[in-house]
Amino acid sequence: MKKVKKHLIVVTVLAISGIFNFGFVEAQAASPSGELEVAIHWAISADWLDPAYSGLSNTSYLSLYLFHDSLLKPMPDGTYTPCLAESWTISSDSKVYEFKLRKGVKFHNGDTMTSEDVVFSIKRYKAGQARFIHEKTEKLETIDPYLVRITFKEPFPDFFDYLLPRAGNIGWVLPKKYVEKVGDAGFKKHPIGCGPYKFVEFVPGVKLVGEAFEQFWRKVTNIKRMEFFTATDPATRLAMVRRGEVDIATYLMDVFYEDAKKDPKLRILMPAGITRWIVYITAQWDPKSPWADSRVRKAASLAIDRKTLAEVLYPGCVPIGPLTMEKDPMVADIPVDPYDPEKAKKLLAEAGYPKGFHGGKFYPYNGPLWRYGETVANYWKAIGISVDTVLLERPAWVANRFGGKMKGALFMDATGAPAIGGNLTLLFGPTSYGNYPDVQALWDQYNKTVDLKSRKDLMIRLQWLIHDKTMFIPVTTANMPTAVSMKVKGNPFKVQPLLSLAGPMEDIELTR
Description:
This protein is of the alpha+beta class. It is 30% helix and 21% strand. It has 2 domains: 29-227 and 480-510, Periplasmic binding protein-like II (D-Maltodextrin-Binding Protein, domain 2); 275-479, Dipeptide-binding Protein, domain 3, CATH 3.10.105.
């Protein structure tokens, strides 16, 4: 192998240093006990039980962290925490990646994980950016039972970002023999992984149940059984946690948030997320559409009162300019567009729409965020832009957004990768609705560049170009006000601010 790049060595060493605090299976621990019941605000898709088909929404990672495990993933110890891969090396040209696998990892059916399972799972991956990654891959090799080598056709310095939330799920590992035996449909009916919990039951639109897997490599889980109940109505979730039917009720906003704060039997946690809400304007690439004019897109941005939107509908959140976290070293310092409806109207008039126009269909995000999206639409209406708001539940919204069925429309989108590169992959990759030649050229150049300083310079230029064109309208950050009963110990949302819903599951504890 060639010399590993210095900046990647630092990431790897820092991540590996967290291993020694994990507490492996060898460490003695009490047997799991008790139940945790959670009322969640979204419907779970059967596809999310299978990493090969799982979507890229943050909520899909609940079932992944529950039943499965990945080569590396965000954990309390760091963004690139070694999991099924205990270490790795990367060639200096970023074309060859080798993963040294952890020995003794068991799947729920008793099979031992080997490099064959890893190669099989990578080849089988079909969701997210699968086509993009597979087309870049030259060779997948099982060097020995615990060493996997991936060789890419060209430098791929961002490969690790595709192993992270909202960018891809290609690093999650499944048992080859079992999947081949039961097939894809059979696997979704009864998934087998090597995560902290074994699959027990899934009733679409109703509940998902897991039971502790006491041979989980990282540690013995604290809780014996976990049940997640779909309750899209916030009043129902609040009532369930108040009556003691569940121990956690997610995403309580507005009056429900205020009511929960007054209940002495509940604690309110505000799990932060990496999600940045944006408006994606697919019609901008239609030359006959008013949205093709950048002045119109800028007017739509200036029409939104982000501060009030956050204060009323997203307590604790703030307006945004960049498309990713401020701590990302690759992020540009882009200012937040001000709330200026008069300037917005002036821009519309300059673009030839002094009386406004009809902007087509608008898809807010799933159920709990309908009011958020509808409020954005009302801000547009105030300057003369009317839209037909279409409300979809999460599975339908995800299917339409990633299936290319929102072409010609506008929709609220969530950039939720930990780094700007992953977010732009979502926006410019196979699930993109369009791009501009100059933006695409910079993006292509960035993806082919290995030198860290040059990559950062290109990424900063790219973000400013996107901003100047108002390709997307950044709105606010996101969080998830959650009511937690006194039965739950501490903060169950430890992967912060990466995955506010994932736990990790094996670390959650009960007080009784």
